Structure formats: C-alpha cells, structure tokens
Amino acid sequence: MRAAALLALAAFGACTDDPPAQRPETHPVATSTEPSETALPSPATVDAAGGAIVEATREADASLPAESESTSPVTIVHRAGYVSSDPGADVPSPTPEDRWMKCEQYDVPFRGATVRSLRTGKPGGREVLLLHGARFDCRTWLELGTLEFLARNGCRAMAIDLPGYGKSETVDVANEEFLRSLLPFLDLKRPVVVFPSMSGSFAFPLAVAHPELVAGLVPIAPVMIDDFAARLEAVAKTRTIPALVVWGEKDAVVPVTKAESLAKSLGGARKLILADANHACYVDQPDAFHAGLLAFLQSLDDRPPPPPK
After folding, report:
1. 43-57: string of b/e by CB count within 10 Å (b at 16+)?
2. For the chain, which ranges sit under pLDDT 50?
3. Catalytic residue among 27, 78, 132, 279, which?
4. pTM of structure
5. Cα gap 42→177, rounded to integer Å
6. pLDDT computed for residue 101 by the predictor
C-alpha cells in the first residue's frame, strides 16, 4: 500500500509540474524592400506600470525564409493605453487596412554602427522623414502623435535618431554626407524631410547637393540658414523644391524674422508661424503643426514629378 501511494504521488507531481519557460524567438529584419504579409509583427501588450511607450520583440514566424541575412531584431512600439487583441481583449483584432498603423522600431545597420528608427504607415504612401533637434530624439514624434497622424493620413512616416543622439551610435560619416548615405538603408526613395533646429546641419547639405533625392522640405527654425542661403538660392534657380517654413512666434533661439529670409532662399516657400509657440514650436502647438504639415503634403500630390536627371 505504501509503495502504491508513493507511486501515485510521484505520478501526480509529474502531471502538475509546469514545463520550463520557453523564451520567445525573434526573427531578423527582412532584407527585401517589398511589403510582405510575413513581415508583420505580432502586437505588443500594454505596460502594466503605465509607461509612456511599450516595446515587445515579435515572435518568430515559421513562414519566414530561414536564409535571411540580417540579424537585427524588430520591435513593435505603442503609445500608452494600447490593448492587445488577444482573445478576450477589449478591442477586436486589427483589420488588414489598419495593420500598418503599428509603429515598428528598427535598428538599422549602417557603416559598422546602428541607427535607431521608428516607422509606420502603409508602404507606397507619401514618404516623410522626421529628424529632431538637439534636446529631442525620434521618440518625440511618437509621443506627439505625429507618426500616427501621418500614417492615418496615408503617409509612410519614419523618424530617426541622428548619430550620437538617442539610441543611434556615432558613425564615421560627416554630417554633410550622412543622409545621402543613409537613405538607401531606410528604403526611402524621395522623402519629404522635416528638420527642426540642429538637424538643419544634416538636411541642408542634402538639399543643396542632392535636391533630386527630396520631394520637399519642412525646416522648423533650423540652424545654418546663413551658411546655406546662397546655395539654396542657386538650386532654386534650376529646380523647384517645395518647402514649408515653420516657426514659433515667440522663438528666442532663432528669431522669427529668419523665416522670411529662408522662405526667399527656397524660392518662395510657404510659411507657417505658430502663435504662442517657442523654438520647439511643434511641441508647443502640435495640432496646428500637424494641420499645416498635412496641408503642405497634400499640395504635393498636385505637382508633377520632377524630370529625370
């Protein structure tokens, strides 16, 4: 009897012991530039601590090709309040139309380093590349809702951390050459470049040396206006680069009077002066900034594409 009891207890313990936890696998970033059904990540779950951003590495998809060369993990990034669409969740599973609203985080391999990027929106939409000022990084555009706003309005939006800022490593490339060299790695053909303040030192060189690579410019009280004014004027005589010059009415860093001179250098660009806003005017007045940005982007669809070089 005692032996039978011991055997029964052993059998019961074997049935109730939990199997060892399995760590979810991750799969590499697909190297193809074509959108793929298998390239869609699974949703992240909401942060129990109520943090502003939630990240989760997507699980491996057995249908992905095993021979993919890249090893950079992909994470899905959500603003606070996101609820998973698991069974029993409070929201339904996303439809094929809104699955592109998820914001993907990629650490892009570049010149022996990595560049942090956030991207969202359906491939094939109007491309928008968002840079940042010295006190900010790519997550600023996530927290302001700019990435989500652009995606909802049909754009393919991407924000990056510039070298040495945020989660991007320093790279052995001069500021003047950085964006031209990076664009192919971001899978962007001709983006509209949004560049506040310090990032003018990256965007202006691209605009004057390779105007064919940009579909439009949105400088936001940028630095180095005087340094590039003459070269911008020279480009404007041979090629039109649509531009929207954005400034804060109360900017104490770069005077708002510079908005007019920059607009002239760009061949008569539009101007958007945000009332009651300081140097980081898009942070002070995000709704007005978004409305002005969208109107500018929509105006580009009425323009014929530039002639091939």
Report:
1. bbebbeeeeebbebb
2. 1-73, 80-83, 305-309
3. 279
4. 0.71
5. 36
6. 81
Domain count, the chain: 1
Give the active site residue among 132, 201, 251, 265. Answer: 251
Q: Which amino acid, 229?
A: A
Containing structural domain, residue 180 = 107-300
What are phi and psi for residue 58, nearest 5 degrees? Answer: -75, 150
Q: What is the reported pLDDT for 140?
A: 97
279 flagged as catalytic: yes
Give the strand order in the sheet containing 192-196: 53-57, 74-79, 103-110, 113-120, 155-160, 126-130, 192-196, 216-220, 244-248, 270-274
Q: Is residue 270 part of a domain?
A: yes
Contact 225, 257 (CB under 8 A): no
CATH number of the domain residue 258 falls in: 3.40.50.1820
Catalytic residue among 84, 117, 197, 199: 197
226 part of a folded domain: yes
The answer as to whether 44 is a domain residue is: no
Is residue 299 flagged as an active site residue? no
The question of whether 197 is a catalytic residue gets the answer yes
In a domain, 140, yes or no: yes
Please state, in angstroms and rounded to a whole number, the distance separating the CA atoms of residues 294 and 274. 15
pLDDT at 93: 61
